[in-house]
Amino acid sequence: MKSVFSLFDENFFTNIKWGDNVERVESSKASRYLYAVLIYYLLWIVLTYPFSLQEWEAGALIAFLGALLSYKQLSVSGIKNIKRIGILIFWYLPVFTWEMIKANIHVASIVLNPKMPIKPGIVKIKTNLKSPVARVWLANSITLTPGTLSLDIEDDYLYIHWITVKAKDVKGATHEIAGKFERILEAMFK
Amino acid sequence: MLDAILGWLGVVLVSIGVFFLFLGALGIFRLPDLFNRLQAGTKSTTLGVVATTLGVGLLAKGWLPFSVAIAIFLLMTNPISSHSVARASYRAGVKLYPGTDPDECAERHLEIHEEGEDE
Amino acid sequence: MRIEIPTAIWAVWFIVISVATVLATLRAVIGPTNSDRLVGLDSWTTITTGFWVILALFFFQFVLLSVAMVYAVLSFLGVLTVARYLERGL
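Predict the joint structure of the above. Result:
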């Protein structure tokens, strides 16, 4: 019987094999620490909403101390993430919102139809993204876009459950499912 | 005037959200196999709860920052939990819907199963 | 609140969301396998988070919005832990 704390160790997200093709570029410690302080302070300000100066002073102290404890777990590339958040808001978010609305109309058309026209299958797609975080973003985007659900990941391949299969081979499926988001995420995690 | 516009926009958003929450539950109830259920469930309930939260943030004065924080949190965590449920149930050997045509994951699943028995 | 919401709209929201909760609960009760029950539980918690948010507006208490946030965090952790248990035991 393992202890309760084994829930929080680095193997919590089970045994993912990332393969040899993964790059994990680390920034300097100062930049990672600064990024953690910024994020924690922003989170503190939002969560203690009715704004007051006393809360902000206490928040500054707690952000600096808390970042000291956990900046290594929060981010790998530190202050560079600010630029990524810009791309995220102005390029990724509009595309994503539109895809999500389409996905929900698709789900509605299937569920409300008495005959339920489904033709499911599990296909395999190949990704070119190098960083683990980018792959997590890709899997999340795929889950929320029309008719697809990311099932498993191994080396460079993602296994996708598709509710109406349109292409069975790896290349066609990759183009059909991941094409749009991979371009954006490549620019984001360059 | 601005209050009225924002308020009715909030009412519309909350109505859309509630409708999609209902649609997700209906999909989970009707569809034939676990992965299809998970698809309907994840997409519809995520959009539903995000639209509801943003609508409530528009309806009440000064609640918008906190409700945007809730919406971002839900958008980031809901797909992760559904992904982990899907993988866990595939590895636990849940039966697929009979019409599932290409099943690329099957060989890999067999390999994992043999490794597991060796341990 | 910015505008007065008519009682009919409140009634429609509460009825629809209650029916949704009941449907998800039914899936969690009758699901043939444990994984089906987990799927039911997952969407049940998401629907209930939405319900907390609407309740916060109904009673007009900001605190209930914080309750919804904590509820979302705890349900995420709970579903992740049960999924991990289904995959390879605790």
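Helices of chain A lie at 29-47, 53-74, 81-111, 132-144, 170-188.
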